[in-house]
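Dock beta-D-glucopyranose; give full complex structure.
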Amino acid sequence: MKLLFVIRLFVFSLFQLSLVCYSGNIFSLPIKKNVLKVEQTKCEYLINPLGIDVMAPRLGWKISASQQVFNQKQKAYQILVATSTDKLTESAADLWNSRKILSDQHAQVVYNGKALVSGQKCYWIVRIWNSDDQVTAWSEVAFWSMGLLNKSDWKAKWIGDQPDLAQKVYADYLNTFDPAKNIPVVNSRPVGPPSPMLRKTFNVKPAVKEAVLYVSALGYYEIGLNGKKIGDHQLAPEWTDYDKRLQYQTYDLTKTLKEGDNVLSSVLGDGWYLGMIGPTKWLSEYPRRGVYGNDRRLIAQLMITYENGEQALICTDDSWRINSQGFIISADNFLGQQIDAQYIPQGWKDIGFDDQHWGNVFVDFGVSKNMEAQKNEPVRINNYFSPIDIKQLGDKYIVDFGQNLTGWTRMKVKGKKGDTIMIRHGEMLDDDGSLYTKNLAAAIQEDRYVLSGNNDEFEPTFTYHGFRFVEISGLNSMPTAEMIKACALSSDPEVTGTFACSNPKLNQLWSNIIWTQRNNMTSVPTDCPQRDERMGWMGDAQVFCQNSMFNMDMAAFYSKWIKDIRDAQSARGTFPDIAPHANKPDIRFSNAPAWADAGVIIPWRMYENYGDKELLRQHYTSMKRYIENIRTQNPKFLWLNDVGNQYGDWLNANTIIADGYSNTRGEIPREVFATAFYANSVKLFSKIAAVLENEKDAREYRQLFDSIYTKFNDAYVDDSARIKGNTQSAYALALHFDLLPEAKQDLAFQHLIECLKEYDNRISTGFVTTLMMMKELTKRGRNDLAYGLLESERFPSWIYSINQGATTIWERWDGYVKGRGFQDPSMNSFCHYSIGSVGEWMYRVLLGINPSDQEPGFKKIIIHPQPGGTITWAKGSYNSISGIISIDWEKTGSMFSMDVEIPVNATATVILPSANPAAIRMNSKKLSTLLSASIDKRTGETSIELGSGKYNFVVDEIAFF
Ligand code: BGC
């Protein structure tokens, strides 16, 4: 940035003045009362959450304007919280009346009212005042409820089958393993114990005021009331380190309970608790399943409050009935589910079903879990897909759903009693049109259904598959499209990003990124949804984190997962490579550079994007312990010891097999890679200390960073700025983490350009540094090369996969190469988000939306579209925690026009592609007459500071492209 030469045309105060003085200017529109509206209220990042366990929940809202107004800010707010909606008035609010608080804070406002107790329902409203002291109407009523806050609140008992049943089957199961191939022997897959069915009939008196159900399980549970599934959660209670904490879910049954007899029914599955999970695949001494335990258990507590104040409790206890010969014969995340419809007792979930012949449940007094309320949006079915093609292949049928997804199929079928239908799932077809399943390894993804002879409907909800295609066998005739549909499943945060541009292949890329994100959000951010891994790999997650936050509101999801990371921190302070981590983080899968560093990087992103200081506070000691361990093990400032598995810049060019593509120059030396990440984590930690006003730590870790920086340069950078290994990734990494003295940056950048040339301007970076290279190319004046890489159709490139029909992001650039075929099946996922991190560049550069370090949580926005390549228009938006930011630009010849929306209570720096403010019009007025502007002569751009509102810009003469 040494060439940066900024001329101030006007002082900022002139900008203020122009708001008042400029005759007929856009800012002088009269502001009517109630133009502003408070909406999208959230509590702990969730919409009306039930059963939370944060004692002082944080509230947030967004402000919209119903007509064109500018520079609107929140000057003050007032919140009312009450025990009922009719008490939501200033005089009656019985939990909290914040009164008018002078503050522009609209997120993470901490509840500061009466102490809250277990089960308490809290209704709330909020209003704000704008800069002119005009007050808005109250927001719509929102609510949250408290969960069971004390261990003693749980009166229910853990119930299930006899314990020895599962032990026996586990032993049998091990015998089915083919040790040579490390996969189960398919045809003798364990046939039990089947999922137990449980039920309890109970009586409800008239006049229920409120009924709340708290549920959790060891394994998966589904629970129903009077024949209907309760809630839309899937795979509950989701994945945590069950030895540390177990999530429970809360459901409101007030409107669904009936007067008289009611019945709760439940069925249990293996889930992550009992079933196969990724980490065990490499460990011969580890169990193939049952890592956390071998017994499926249910706990449920229904609390009924009557209008007259009387209370009743319906709990899991020894009065529940159980049928162990369930219709779910087996179910496992990796293997699939077997359902025998002959064993579905008619009406077993309904009132009036005779369960006298069922057995007594086993009450397990040995279970003791740390129960915690669910923090993240539940896993739900988010989409349905009908077949786009069905083909016959011998006696089997191949169905194409047109989208690679995570989930399962729902199938309606009528056939001969006792006949078996098998559905196998895969992401790709082999060249002969058959289902390709080699890349699934031990996760065979097979569902089997035994028909009842009547109209059957099958939906296997205790497993999940990564697939676009299914192969159906056992049918006597071609299935119709109406018989089967695919149900797509994921943790379900709100989608916050939209994107479209003039290159349709980039639009497909954007869609592929979104789908890859969805498919890998099954309670934790997994690497892939299909093969026998499906783990929360931290390196992939940190690389994709910013992109994921543009795409969706990830605040609640990562709040939960960052706790999973803390749970997996080892005694000496290492962060894990995977979270949850079920395999002794003290001795394995820990502290790998760039993977473990996610434990610092992702909390920092939470701060940048959502302004979440509380999370930084909670995680502070963990981050410090992490860094201190590396410092202790590496007193000479280079990260050489305690580097775990050292994955390095994973899947760089050296792993690519293709004619004419060198596989010797991709790999960055691992010590360079490790030390760069150490430096970055220390720098971030120093910044975090400063944010939390811990000046001493901020100083100390800044000094530590300086020492690492010096040693990094001494050890790995020569006088001509060549970095050891001389690879694209080394330069991208060092420049991106700011590890080079200013005098060497341009030279190092030139070396990066040479390394690119060596690959004929193609990528040789691994997934950790690819996005860094894209950003550095743009930042340092070679946006043309960045666009070249993005739009390239040659191998390896993003569009190469799209040209072969990809609907999600591939793990490897060369997952499939025409003529050569598939890559190594032991590691070849077609749904991995890591190299999809380029979506972040698309938001930041192509569209132009950027957060600002100065004011986190998008209180300050940098709007900076940098068109290039073949792109002639782009539009998109981001519903940030501060509200909707939208951009719509077009380039016609040398003219550039753009519509921009900046949300209320935020400000933006808008950077436009011309160094001549006189050639820029804003809302039809010449910029030079309206505003202060700064010109950057190096880039040929003009920047202006703006408040909220909708703006149109026209640039007559584009300067830099
Ligand atoms: C995963 C990666 C992960 C890696 C560690 C792989 O098997 O799929 O995405 O980060 O292991 O190098």
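Observed: Residues 670-691 form the longest helix (22 residues).
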